[in-house]
């Protein structure tokens, strides 16, 4: 009786799928650099993601600053915010501030970059003078301009030959914050423009000069078009920062809302509700309204940028 031997089975190699390849690439990347960025992700989660989630939860409650007797109220805080006149007035102050300061920063930063780029002597001094104010803390800037805008001994009125109470009347209160912010923050945009100017090919200017183009024509037909992308970046960054204006306005008006509440910004009103009225839940709801506005601006910027890239292809 002969024994039957089972035929040997041929083992086929396992095919590698796209998912396996992606998992393998991710594993290699994490193996080489993942441990270096892991502390950042841990800190980001603890100090950004967790507070955001916690704040979102509190916006649906009637929590106070002590944290006692918290109950779920649903969308009541958001409905109250939509009907709160102070929410809309403070939002309008932030928007008006943004509409004033952002165009000024773009124009002044570009002019400063052109001066620092084309000047022959003491280039380092121009760059230092233009960028140095940006390094100052907001408290220093607020107190400095509070003194400069004093009606009797302030330098602004002394230079202009005026006796205007800049900080005491409604018509000039927000304008004073705009001027202080322009002086303080324009240095950052100046630095971006200066870096972009240095990347424009010099042969474009030489060819235009040989064709008889004057300085203004070279500026409008070469410089400005080549700075389109950096101008869009400056606009986006400044709009997002200006909507969150708080420090300099609060310090300049000694932690008050200014004459006739003309300088109360959205962030300041949120702080008042949370730490003066002790309504943490309502303050969280207001802060998320601002978050949605800022997110809409950022997404709109991304959509315009993507559309421009598709049109240039």
Write the SSE topology.
Blueprint: H1 18-58, H2 76-82, H3 85-118, H4 123-131, H5 138-148, H6 155-160, H7 170-198, H8 202-210, H9 215-226, H10 228-242, H11 247-252, H12 266-275, H13 280-312
Main attributes of the structure:
313 residues, mainly alpha, globular
In short:
With 313 residues, the protein is mainly α.
Outline the structure in words.
Helix content is 71%, strand content 0%. The chain is an all-alpha fold and 313 residues long. Helix 3 (85-118) packs antiparallel against helix 4 (123-131). The model has no long low-confidence stretch (mean pLDDT 87).
Count the E strands: 0
The radius of gyration computed from the alpha-carbon positions, rounded to a whole number of angstroms, is: 28 Å
Strand content: under 5%
Relative helix content: over 70%
State the helix count: 13
Distance between the amino and carboxyl termini = 79 Å
Mean pLDDT equals 87
Biggest beta sheet summary: none
Helix and strand succession? HHHHHHHHHHHHH
Which parts are unreliable, with pLDDT below 50 for 5 consecutive residues or more? none
Helix and strand content put the structural class at mainly alpha
Estimate the global geometry from the Cα principal axes. globular
